[in-house]
Known about the structure:
alpha/beta, Rossmann fold
Amino acid sequence: MDKIAVVTGAGSGVGRACAIRLVKEGWRVALVGRREQQLKETAAQAGNDKCLVTACDIADPAAVMKLAADVLAHFGQVDALVHAAGTNIPKRSWETLTVDDYRAVVDTNLNGAFYCMRALLPSMRKRGRGTMVMIVSDAGIIANAKAGAAYVASKFAERGLVQSINAEERANGIRATALCPGDINTPILDKRAAPPPADARLKMLQPEDIAECVMLAINLPDRAVVEELVVRPR
Length: 234
């Protein structure tokens, strides 16, 4: 039987790398993101016959519920959620952060994570199994100035969602991993006030490194769970 994953943020970066890796390991994947064209590019790289392109703004709870219904109607089940969607803003320091920018970051990074987890939980509960891997950040463990207050707050809270899933849902066969990477060479770096140069990006973690960690969490026997994994550039 096919294994089915939903990957958010699948149009680029970590989400794209995870989707491609999952397909290589025999999974069928629902690709989720706001930009349909980028999702189609991911599908072309991963294998169009293995992917379902599902454009969705995860900050919209109604859209996420429709997404879950569409994925289940198409595939019949969801075995794993890989939540790689996230954002940040250039003006992120306490001195420059606006209320609107703060809300935009929290709506995507925290509320979007909650909406996706909540939408897929019932089907996982019904089957008595499921894995959620949330790409958090080491800024959700120890705050740093370069990440900014809104991002830090959203990622600390996202770790809390993961812990809550493991506290409440393990009896239902569901497990969750908070994957907390350091700097990754992805397009989100361009949203920094001073984006890092190319040579610095080469020394960072690469999206494929995070995909490797995601597969570790997903491929473990059902009796085991990686509750939290921190990975940083060496």
